[in-house]
Automatic annotation (TrEMBL):
SMART domains: KISc. ATP binds at G95, Q96, T97, G98, T99, G100, K101, T102. Its main location: cytoplasm. It comes from Sinocyclocheilus grahami (Dianchi golden-line fish). Transmembrane segments: none annotated. One of its GO terms (biological process) is microtubule-based movement. InterPro entries: Kinesin-like_fam, Kinesin_motor_dom, Kinesin_motor_dom_sf, P-loop_NTPase. This is Kinesin motor domain-containing protein. It is found in: Cytoplasm, Cytoskeleton.
């Protein structure tokens, strides 16, 4: 569960995923507390008994019980609405390995309860487009991963290929939509 605050140009939200089996073992201790109401994450140093918690405040925080659609509705939907009005917008997930970036961004696309930011955004965009009349849209998508200073195009057939750091990714996918026809085309930017 999370309680959102007022809308701002840049929002930073934190999600703490549920502990996994290894982390729940009796010899492990929980060092992170999430206060959804205050939008705070507090961390305790496990090596120093009696040490104070260090607290950090964000636009919103999501605890282990948070649902994909709660996060989407507050953190992403307003941005997609403004993109549909013609503004630029970016959503990116950042975190250590295993912290839940893929789960949050992709989730389980075939399960409406568990699908993540990407399928929810696509649904939102294409539903809006399908309801509009006498208007043609151009939707472009690129999907890149930045890992250890290396950039890879995750939609490219050979995604082991490293990309150079440039203004635009080398390949993007362009979706040309007329009310009766949707067409994706691979396009190389050069
Ligand atoms: N909110 C969540 N609810 C339930 N399970 C979750 C949640 N977030 C992550 N998980 C589970 O935790 C594990 C690690 O998550 P995930 O693969 O998304 O991490 P990641 O940050 O993308 O890791 P990497 O950087 O190594 O790719 C997965 O098994 C995933 O299903």
């Amino acid at each position: 569960m999370s309680i959102g605050k007022k809308s701002e140009a840049v929002k930073v939200v934190v999600r703490c995923r549920p502990l996994n089996k290894k982390e729940e073992a009796p010899n492990q201790e929980r060092i992170v507390e999430v206060d959804v109401r205050l939008g705070q994450v507090s961390v305790r140093n496990p090596k120093s008994s009696g040490s104070l918690l260090k607290s950090f405040t964000f636009d919103a925080v999501y605890d282990a019980g948070s649902k994909q659609n709660e996060l989407y509705d507050y953190a992403c939907k307003p941005l997609i609405d403004s993109v549909l009005l013609g503004f630029n917008g970016t959503i990116f997930a950042y975190g250590q390995t295993g912290t839940g970036k893929t789960y949050t961004m992709e989730g389980v696309p075939t399960d409406p309860e568990r699908r993540g930011v990407i399928p929810n955004s696509f649904q939102h965009i294409f539903t809006r487009i399908s309801r509009s009349q006498n208007q043609q849209y151009l939707v472009r998508v690129s999907y890149i991963e930045i890992y250890q200073e290396e950039i890879r195009d995750l939609l490219c057939k050979d995604n082991n290929k490293k990309l150079e750091l440039k203004e635009n990714p080398e390949i993007s996918y362009v979706c040309v939509i007329n009310p009766s026809r949707i067409e994706w085309k691979e396009r190389c930017n050069s």
